Structures are given as C-alpha cells and as structure tokens.
Amino acid sequence: MWRSGKNSETRVLLFVTLKRRDLFPMQRIAKELCKRDGYAIRLSGISDFPYAILDFRPHIVLFGKPDNAWGDWLRCMSGCTVISLNTEQGGHDREEVICQFIEGHAGTRGPALELVDHHLIVDERTKGYLSQHIDPARMHVVGYPRLLTETLACEPTAVGDNMVVGFACGEDVVDKRYLVETFRLYQGRQFGPWRNVQTLLTNDLLELVWINNLVSRLREDFKIIVRYRHGDDAFLLDEDGVELDSSASLEYLLSAVDLLIVGRSTVGIEALIAGIPAITVSGLIRPANEFVGAKNFWTTRLLWQPETSDELLEMVEARSRNDLDLSPDLTSYQIAASEAYFCGQATDRSIERIVDVVMHCERGDGATLDLERLCDLFLPSRREHLLLKIARFWSTGLAYRLALSYLKIRRRVAPDNYLRHTVFIPD
C-alpha cells in the first residue's frame, strides 16, 4: 500500500466538489504538492471531470466524499488510486457521521466506499465512529484543511471605530424545489437531533426568518457583509445596504468582519479560530417546547447563544465596545476545536498530513473511464454525448478543450448561480 518516492512523474487530479467550499483547501494541497519533485497537479470541477480523467489519466485522484455522482464516477473508473476527503466532517455525533459516510445522501445508489483506497479523516473521534464500517488502515487522521489560520486563536481581535457585522447563511428553504425534493428524499429518515425531516425544515425556515430580521435591524447601525451558502442568492428578502460576499473562500469575510452571526453553520467555529466572536441564532429558534434543534451541536454550544433578540442585540453592542469574549466557554472551545480541527495540537498541519498520504500511497497506472457504463449511469445530454464520442474516437484533449470552452462561454453569456458559485472551471 505504501511506497517510497519514485523518479517518474506522478499525475494527481484534485476534484473540487463545490467551488465556494472546497476550492480553497484543494488549492492549498496543490500548492504544497507543487513544491515536491516528480508531481504533476491538475484541478477539476464537476462539469469537466470526465474529460480531465480521459485527458490527464491521473495516477491518483483526490475526491470529496464518494457519494451520489462521485460514487458513480468511481464505479466507472479504473487504473488509479482513490483518496477521499469527505467535506462534511468535524465533530458530529455518531449518528450524523454514519449518515454522512456510510448511508450517504438519499439517492439511487449509495456511496462507493469499497472503491476508495484511503479516507482522510478530520479527527480521531470520527475515525472511531467509522472503525466498524471502514478498515482503520485505510483511514488517516489529518485535521481540517479549510482553516484560514495556522494557529488556534485564544482571544478576540480588537474592534476599530466602525464595527462590521457578518452573516453566514444556511439553506434557502424558500426554494420550493429544494423543499419538496428534500422532503421526498429524507421523509422516512431518522437522523441527528432533528428526529425527522419536518423538524429540520422547520429549523432552517426559522433560521432564514431570524437572519433576515437581524440584517434588517442591524444594517442601520453597522456595515453588514453577508455570505450566502454556495449559490443561494435569494436568501435575503432585501439586499439594500448590504455587501454580498461571493468570493471563492471565507478569507475575505473573516478578514473584514468583527462579529459573525450564523445559524448552525460550522463557519461560526472557523470564525472563533480566526479570532472573531460568533453568535448563533439557534437559541432563538423554538417552534415547540420539546424542540432541541441545533442548540446542542458542539459547533453551536461554543458560540454565543442568546435566547431573545434583546439579548442578542446586547451582545452586538458589547462586541462594538470590545467587551465580548471570543466564546462563552473559552476552555471548552480550545479543547474541542483543537481535537476536532488540529488533531489535538495548537497548529494546523492538515496539508502536510494530506500530502504525506498522497506521497506514500501506491499510484495506479493511469485512470481510464468505462464510457459505456458512464453513459448508462449519468444519461448525458446530447452535447455531453457528442463530447464523449469525440473523446472516445478522436481526441481526448480536443473533447476537454471543447468542454471547458463551452462552460466558460455559458458562464459569461448566460450566467447562473450554479456556474458562478458552485462549479469550479479550471483555467
């Protein structure tokens, strides 16, 4: 399974599942690998991936989680070592971990775990939860590659004269298609603290209402920067007087704001690590007395959790005076964040650990795709079918260039949220 370095060039393909979530860590990995001799690196997104496989023929492919479409691509691939970096990790309870890794999202086919050679795991707890389902020898605890800072902040950054308040939004559950599809897929599932999909959707709807309400109240007194989740561009009812952050990573948001307000997003913990206090609206969401929701997630327990709007506004004012601590429980935050994201240490060595796995794993002979099976599983459009025919009978390089050209023209001429925010298109 493990090898020493070889003299021949090793081709590594890094797959960016969601541009605004996954591009930053993949760029970090690529940058570090480029420092090592004997490696050729390429990044790929959802739309160009099959053509990148055919053209680049990587020896190693680094995916997000092998679920749904990604699992199907694995079912069509051979000739390469597959490394999976599940993008939905970090301190969840056992039930949530099993749901994400083993069951996967509700689809026609489940995750292709048996086709993954190495799993990159964020923390020891997650590895322990998975040890009965995945061979521990195939799991490598590496930390959290999405972090923007090398060290764990222990105190808040100072606020200047004009405080900036940031918001990180969740799912846009007002989208009727999303509501109906989520209910259909997860109707019978019991997962997490939600008990069922109805309480999950209720929580997300009330989170949307609260954040809209707070943005409206706070923009009169503070500069507001809002970051939508992936491509949900209709989360706010009124965007007047609000700066929207659509950049590829959290780097700008966390460098510009003094305070962050979130729902159940893990961005709140990432803000703490960067020295920015975070408030969650999870404590304000109480549709029923017995409703627990996201209040007890470890990622929300460590944030400021007001139970009334007046209490929240008092916390905002306290932060403007530099009177708000980084977390209501600094000791618990430091221990939990270190264990979940830093492998129990005070500094981030995730990229170093990931690169070490890549450098020491067996490499394949060069990836190929079973195009017949790919077409059976994905039912490609006429355009995609034509490009695959070109790749099969004439030139994979030509098919790849045509695919990239089409995507870039479409993004420029007829832009949509999917191409602008979700899909990474290589240069």
Note down, in words, how this protein is organized:
By secondary structure, the chain is α/β, with parallel strands linked by helices. It folds into 2 domains: 10-147 and 350-422, Rossmann fold (3-Layer(aba) Sandwich); 164-341, Rossmann fold (3-Layer(aba) Sandwich), CATH 3.40.50. The protein contains 17 helices and 13 strands. The radius of gyration is 22 Å and the shape is globular. The chain starts with 9 loop residues before the first strand and ends in a 5-residue tail after the last helix.
What can be said about this structure in brief?
This protein is α/β, with parallel strands linked by helices and 427 residues long. The protein has 17 helices and 13 strands. The protein has a six-stranded parallel β-sheet, sandwiched between helices.
List the helices and strands and how they pair.
Elements: E1 10-15, H1 19-34, E2 39-44, H2 49-56, E3 60-63, H3 68-76, E4 77-78, E5 81-84, H4 94-103, E6 118-121, H5 124-130, E7 139-141, E8 164-168, H6 176-186, H7 197-218, E9 223-227, E10 242-244, H8 251-256, E11 259-262, H9 267-273, E12 278-280, H10 298-301, H11 309-320, H12 330-341, H13 350-360, E13 368-369, H14 371-378, H15 382-393, H16 396-413, H17 417-422
Parallel strand pairs: 1-2, 1-3, 3-5, 5-6, 6-7, 8-9, 8-11, 9-10, 11-12
Antiparallel strand pairs: 4-13
